[in-house]
Amino acid sequence: MTKILLTDAPGLDADFDRKLRAVYEEVLTLLAESFAEGQTLGIVDAGDTRVFAYLTVGAIKELLYQSVMHDLDGESADRLTSEVFSFLCRGCLRIPDIPPS
Questions:
Q1: Which of the residues 51, 65, 69, 99 has the least number of beta carbons within 10 Å of its own beta carbon?
Q2: Does position 21 have pLDDT exceeding 80, yes or no?
Q3: Whole-Å CA distances, 97 to 57, 88, 91, 100, 101
Q4: Is residue 89's pLDDT more than 80?
Q5: Are 4 and 12 in contact (CB under 8 A)?
Q6: Which band of pLDDT confidence, cut at 50, 70 and 90, is reported for residue 12?
Q7: Mean pLDDT of the chain
Q8: Cα-based torsion angle of the residue sequence 31, 29, 93, 6 in order, rounded to the nearest 10 degrees
Q9: Distance of alpha carbon 95 from alpha carbon 26, whole angstroms
Q10: What CA–CA distance (Å, rounded) separates 51 from 58?
Q11: What number of other Cβ atoms are within 10 A of residue 6's Cβ?
Q12: Among 19, 28, 36, residue whose Cα is nearest residue 61
């Protein structure tokens, strides 16, 4: 069902597509607003909150898709949730300061 919803269903029915876009738009708006509030509180880095929302939804959708398609080696929902939260908190790149030449 998850695979169908994430990959196969869009494009099959115009009415379903509109409903699905409306759901995504609502989720994106709520996330962007939450990120903006987090920026005000000093717990979300500066940046375009709408882009943050797109990135977050995209990451979660891909994780769900991969989880369904590959069973992610039997990872538990709690473990995957923890990894998503960790990624959102720190990102994944660590670029050391390079001294000026």
A1: 99
A2: yes
A3: 30, 22, 17, 9, 12
A4: yes
A5: no
A6: confident
A7: 83
A8: 100
A9: 35
A10: 10
A11: 15
A12: 28
Residue 51: how many other CB atoms lie within 10 Å: 11
Q: Provide the token pair at 17.
A: 């597509």
Question: How would DSSP label each residue in the chain?
Answer: -HHIIIIISTTT-HHHHHHHHHHHHHHHHHHHHHHHHHHHHT-S-SS-HHHHHHHHHHHHHHHHHHHHHHGGGG--HHHHHHHHHHHHHH-S--PPPPPP-
**Residue boundaries of the structural domains of the chain:** 2-90
CB 86 within 8 A of CB 23: no
Q: What are the structure tokens assigned to 67, written together?
A: 């989880």
Q: Tokens representing 86?
A: 């960790």
For residues 54 and 27, what is the distance between their CA atoms, to the nearest angstrom? 10
Q: What is the pTM of this model?
A: 0.75
Structure tokens at 62: 């891909």
